[in-house]
Design a protein that fits this description.
It contains 3 helices and 27 strands. By secondary structure, it is an alpha/beta fold. Strand 1 and strand 2 form a beta hairpin.
């Protein structure tokens, strides 16, 4: 009896120990589970924040793209200023502003912000006018300029006169380019770069506000091939009206008292001599466009010259295959582009708004050259120079 009664207390003691062990094990398991859950929640929070940060950056970069689109097209799509945009995409919102406000071709900074919830990220993008589209003023073998001014403006932003006092004319576009030497004399002033050929130089460079460093490689310009698609209608030597379509003549001479009137979209093919002289004039009606394809012999614009009523250089284009002289000495301003890569080009005492490519360029009598940056619109007229996200680490280029 005593032995049995003394044995019974051993079981409750063992059961209690097992219970304690189980409770301790359970506590350990619960602690581990809680720690694991906390780690998972923390990891989820980190992942969620990383996703939101990326989405905020993407929204900011989308705002930059939209601002760039307005710059490239010279258009204010939302009526809040070129380069100023705002909107949303999914759960992200974005804004972008242009600093300084758009005034024409120059260097700008796009300040963009993308936001997702409480997360915001900023991107700053420096953009500058590019050289895509038509070149500025190119004398493949040489350039000689005595007096006058070379600068740029944007016909999409108004007249040259309305921009001449602003910083738009100081953009860093390459204005004078050659494979040879560039000679500047008298009061010649180049607001931009004057780029001579490899191993060549610029003389009289005190009037150049930009770079005068020689190019690292030569400019390659394809020669124009004259290939008229229609039959000739003989020579022109009297007043004429050209409507939309293709027209071809053996020569085209508009002398004193004669007028050539251009209506619609006209392609004019001239096999030989092209001349406007004396009081003769060629008038482009509002909305008209004229493309001249010239074969050989002299190409001369003098007298009353061209009257481009829209004053848009893109409306008048000259392509010439001639090796003879191409001369501009009109009393009127010339709004257009000339590409005659095998011809010597001479201009005297007039304003040329647009661009010129020739074998040589000789500019005298205070001739002024005004490159129209709108000629490159939509083809890379602006390029991204630097991209900086918040925190100062480059995100792209």
């Amino acid at each position: 009896m005593n032995t049995l009664s003394m044995a019974f207390p051993t079981r409750p003691t063992m059961a209690g120990s097992a219970t304690v062990i189980c409770l301790l094990s359970l506590c350990v398991v619960m602690s581990f589970g809680t720690a694991t859950l906390s780690m998972l929640l923390a990891k989820r929070s980190v992942v969620k924040r990383a996703i939101e940060v990326d989405e905020a950056f993407m929204a900011a970069e989308a705002a930059v793209d939209l601002a760039m689109s307005e710059l490239l097209n010279h258009s204010d799509f939302a009526g809040d200023g070129i380069g100023v945009v705002s909107g949303s995409a999914g759960r992200a919102s974005f804004t972008a502003t242009l600093v300084p406000p758009f005034t024409g071709p120059r260097v700008y900074t796009i300040l963009a912000t993308g936001s997702v919830g409480s997360i915001s990220r900023n991107v700053e993008v420096d953009v500058e006018p590019g050289t895509a589209g038509r070149p500025g003023f190119v004398g493949l073998d040489s350039i000689s300029m005595s007096g006058g001014v070379v600068d740029t403006y944007d016909s999409h932003s108004g007249t040259y006169a309305s921009q001449v006092a602003g910083s738009a004319l100081r953009a860093g576009i390459v204005h004078l380019q050659s494979n040879g030497n560039i000679s500047l004399s008298a009061s010649a002033m180049v607001h931009g770069d004057a780029t001579p050929g490899p191993g060549k130089s610029v003389s009289g460079a005190t009037g150049v506000t930009g770079s005068t460093a020689p190019a690292t490689s030569a400019i390659a310009v394809d020669a124009y091939a004259y290939a008229p698609p229609v039959d000739t209608m003989g020579p022109v030597s009297s007043s004429i009206t050209l409507d939309s379509g293709k027209h071809r003549y053996t020569s085209f001479v508009i002398g004193s008292g004669k007028v050539a009137t251009i209506t619609g979209d006209v392609e004019l093919w001239v096999d030989g001599k092209f001349e406007i002289s004396g009081s003769g004039t060629a008038i482009l009606d509002p909305g008209a466009r004229l493309t001249i394809h010239h074969g050989t012999d002299k190409f001369t614009i003098s007298g009353a010259g061209f009257v481009n009523q829209d004053r848009k250089p893109a409306n008048l284009t000259v392509y010439s295959a001639t090796t003879f002289a191409v001369t501009c000495s009109s009393g009127a301003e010339f709004f257009g582009t000339i590409e005659a890569p095998k011809a010597p080009f001479t201009a005297s005492g007039m304003g040329i708004y647009g661009s010129v490519v020739a074998k040589t360029m000789t500019l005298g009598g205070a001739t002024s050259l005004h490159y129209d940056n709108a000629l490159g619109a939509g083809t890379g007229a602006y390029r991204r120079r630097l991209i900086w996200p918040s925190g100062g680490t480059p995100r792209g280029s």
